Amino acid sequence: MGENIPTVFPASSFNPRADADALHKGMKGFGTDEKALISILCHRTCDQRASINLAYKAGYGKDLESALKSELSGCFEKLMVALCLPIAEFMAREVHHAISGMGTNEDTLIEVLCSGTNQEIREMNAAYQRLYGHPMEKDIKGDTSGEFELLLVSMVQGQRDENQAVDVYEARADAHLLFQAGAAKIGTDESVFHSILASRSWPHLRQVISEYHNMHGHTLERAVKAEFSFNAERGLLTILQCAKNRHEYFAHRLHHAIDGLGTNDRNLIRIIVSRCDVDLNNIKQEYERKFSRSLQADVSGDTSGDYRRALLALLG
Predict the structure, then answer these.
(1) Are 283 and 247 in contact (CB under 8 A)?
(2) Architecture of domain 88-156
């Protein structure tokens, strides 16, 4: 899938104390200098923002998050707060929000857990335990059921094989097992789909998808749609989409967040903040390829004010 290219790069001659002071000055007195906040928080990597956080607390005796919350409001506040948090903590909060209160936001759980790397998920687990005093797995088990619960519990372990080498014969064997577990029989052996899609490496799964189509004349996605339903189906399809092209998956998620009536600002913020240090440039390219217009243009048309300016700064 090529090299990951972010949209936010390390600021040269970085001085966290100077940035902390500039942020404090921007929020001191009457009114807020939103441009100063954007020029700093939207142009520093997550590691640099973490250093600014520490410098701010050391210099002013309070968290940058609480300072931002006392000065800002609306979507701009949510975006600035997201930027001042370590990514793992921000994503742990997103998972908690998805499973707390009335109902469950399965879309968020699928996006975060079924697309994540082992490192992302393990760091999120540690942050969740720190924030809420118990494992993320416990809350997921309490809020989901059936095949969907089993899939998410597997994902939460962060134990996907990380071997980047692909053995075509092993991929072919997995493709055969998946066919035997689904299309070749009455009923479905869900555990086979589950164990292969939840544990094999991303490059291996890409090869399995190709081998399955070559061997059986239809796609593995079609098999999943035929054998599963509802959230378990959507979770497994997300895994397959990320194995084929993670950048395209996130391009579709962003399009879904800003297309049609209204904007899903929570999804828009989560994806842009979590990917700007990783591969947002690639996602932008996929977006333009898929939808024949730039992500910047669509974000600009769907947002306004300082919120728009901050998002566009993060989009590069």
Answers:
(1) yes
(2) Orthogonal Bundle (1.10)
Which residues touch 187 (CB under 8 Å, ≥6 apart)?
none
Is there a contact between 148 and 235 (Cβ–Cβ < 8 Å)?
A: yes
CA-CA distance, 99 to 150, in Å (whole number)?
A: 16
Question: Six-digit token pair at 300?
Answer: 């600009």
Q: 39 with 28: CB under 8 angstroms?
A: no
First to last CA, the chain: 21
Tokens of 126: 């540690």
- The superfamily (CATH) of domain 1-85+258-316 is Annexin (1.10.220.10)
- Domain residue extents for the chain: 1-85+258-316, 88-156, 168-228
Residue-level pLDDT, tens digit, the chain, 316 residues: 679 999 999 999 999 999 999 999 999 877 899 999 999 999 999 999 999 999 999 999 999 999 999 999 999 999 999 999 999 999 999 999 999 977 889 999 999 999 999 999 999 999 999 999 999 999 999 999 999 999 999 999 999 999 999 999 999 999 999 999 887 667 678 889 989 999 999 999 999 999 999 999 999 999 999 999 999 999 999 999 999 999 999 999 999 999 977 899 999 999 999 999 999 999 999 999 999 999 999 999 999 999 999 999 999 9
For domain 168-228, give the CATH number. Answer: 1.10.220.10
